[in-house]
């Protein structure tokens, strides 16, 4: 019985890795689409969001099967409960990447800024997502805590990007105001992705230690 349970837990890990990879790919594609002004690439991000949504349903089904059909011990319960929380944040990451894609589709390629800082934000946020899932699979407490710490850097980049774009609006006397506002929204979506990755890392910490910062579970 335990062998079957362990095999299903292994399947859960594989599916979480795949969902995390889809989220990371969506973030990278959305950023590439922004930098290249590629409508086609942006549409691919939106299509990928549907696959991420389906992955959430599949993993949720597997978690419920593990809870109902097996006899998980406390450590297993924490692992399964954390997975259920993690997929909610990963699904929202897919939504944020799709929101960025929608902005790209509705607007032309930016001329306001060279987008280097947004590119850096995207790389940092994507790494946070990848590392948070890796820390879950490997039960790596140190790595999940590094993800939480990395969120501060993403927040700082967001504030710097927002200031640069507001300054650009002022310098151009509002001529490119709507475009700059759209880019502020893109940066905000990336900042939220960092927040979701942090949430994932916090649930990883719970799955390992039994302690969650916002609860007494």
TrEMBL record:
Gene Ontology cellular component list: cytoplasm
Residue ranges of every copy of the PhoU domain listed in the record: 17-104, 119-204
Keywords for this protein: Cytoplasm, Phosphate transport, Transport
Domain of life of the source: Bacteria
GO BP field: intracellular phosphate ion homeostasis; negative regulation of phosphate metabolic process; phosphate ion transport
Alphabetized Pfam families for the sequence: PhoU
Compartments, record wording: Cytoplasm
Function: Plays a role in the regulation of phosphate uptake.
Family under the similarity heading: Belongs to the PhoU family.
Quaternary structure (record): Homodimer.
Protein name: Phosphate-specific transport system accessory protein PhoU
Species whose genome carries this gene: Merdimonas faecis
